[in-house]
Records
---
Amino acid sequence: MGENASLASQPLSATDARLKIYRTSELMAAGASARVTIDGKERGSLGNGESTLLDLPAGSHKIVVDYWGHPGAYAITLQAKPGLLYTLEIAPREDAVMAGALLGTVGMLVEASVNENGGAFRLRVVSAEPIKR
């Protein structure tokens, strides 16, 4: 996925919002790539410390992050407004990583089944700011 530097220098359409999605640099779950899906379409994956920029039409979007080797996923619904830059952070979910480390696959399955938002990673909106034109 990687940082889309060319998009940063392009103007944003008046009907779109821009997302900057970054993955924290942490030792926990460092070897796993976080897959990003928006509205059911896979948009790529982010390794430890990577980021990307994406433009989306304003409106409601379901954004999901998961990892192929872990059951469950973490999802948010973003009500994107035109002209805004949304910064989203992907970070490891400590509960999920610890359950897998202590109890293996069974621990991951149990942990995922008791959490509506499960999976190896969590996703959160860090900021929403107007894009300077």
---
Amino acid sequence: MSKHLKRRWIAVILIWVLVTGLTGWNIHRIGRIQTDRGNLAILRMDLQFLKANRTTIMDVRSQKARLNHLAESRDFGFLVVENNLKRLSTEFGLLDFSVKTDESNISIQEFTIKTAAFGPVPAVAGWVCAVEKAYPYLEIDQLEYVAKPDSPTGTVQVRFNYHLILSNEGPVS
């Protein structure tokens, strides 16, 4: 083979190596671009969804925030809840109302509150409904009503799970 023909073959081989390399690089770039376009389409749909449902999302976030009582400390939060429950029991005419915490719970953000009172069924039902409506962070865990024989009154015991967030931890997101 002549020197001139060898050089041409080397040139052809180098060109094919270059073409093959550029083709591989181009295929890789096209794959990345397609992936980026797909991700961009997903982000645009997410943004469109968020814009269309902004008020609903904000409502859900505010409802979630209502499910936790914001307090400076566990004891202060319990004091506020105790005063609120006692005030409501007075409004509904419940007698011998008592509130205490269950000391077996050691969680800072959730613990059990036990209440006991004496009163008629309509007053107890009204009190329970008022507590559920006004204080959504008090979740009823157990409710027991024991009626007195031959009397429209009885004893009620309610155990609540109290959910709170310490104010130094910030709001619920």
---
Amino acid sequence: MKLSLVLRGRAILVGALAAGLVVSGCASTTSLDDPDAVYDPIEPVNRYIFEVNYFLDEMFIKPSAYIYRAALPDPAQRGVRNALSNLRMPWTAVNDLLQGEFDRAATAGGRFAINSTLGVLGLFDVADDFGLPNHEEDAGQTFAVWGLPEGPYIVLPIFGPSNVRDAVGLVGDYFGDPVNIVARQYPDGDLFLIGRGLLTGVSTREQVIEVLDELQRNSVDYYATLRSVYRQRRQNEIRNGAPEDDRPRPSASPPESRPVAVAPETVDESEPTAPFPGGGY
């Protein structure tokens, strides 16, 4: 079966899941009086998926990340990260425009043009020397800027920590990304998309091996720790690292509930977007 047909089926599944979770979230009797609480009305289901993801990570993804680390010297790994980041720049520019961030859209477009040419298909980050710093945007962030609530917290198979808004955003990322659109026009485009996804997952997992190991060692409840870290990091990405009060912040709760507080620390947007790559927990 063609990958595009499989992903279309997944898109329908995610949409149905999103609708079901919104309904379950609105019907939940979970107390949201604590503004620091993450809205997690299906926690038992999420914990089960978390454990399955953890098993898959320990058995397959984490070992692959170690093999990748051992096989490629640091300069080669840096080149792979640069190339993967460069492929995300067109979609980042589109999302910047949709968010009304025209200067950032110009920066993303400039980075793609410079790194795709002078940077040898993105292997070298020449654009940074031109004063065009790296940043990334996606559909989930755009939905947040538009004011759409994030909805209940969910753990996706393979993809890991998420919420309803970001789960739907993943579908938008796949179908809206200009690089994916171009790739699907070619007979072997599906192979390119598979390779891009696998390489992105392994590369990102390699970068956060120590981060996740440290979190696990220091966590009384690893699931709750990752849930909290994910949401704080995601909110910082939505605000582009700005202080909390500088940009509107959508609520994770149903309309009648209070918004969830976000940690004030900022994020270096040149780093991996979160310690939860494809294959996260």
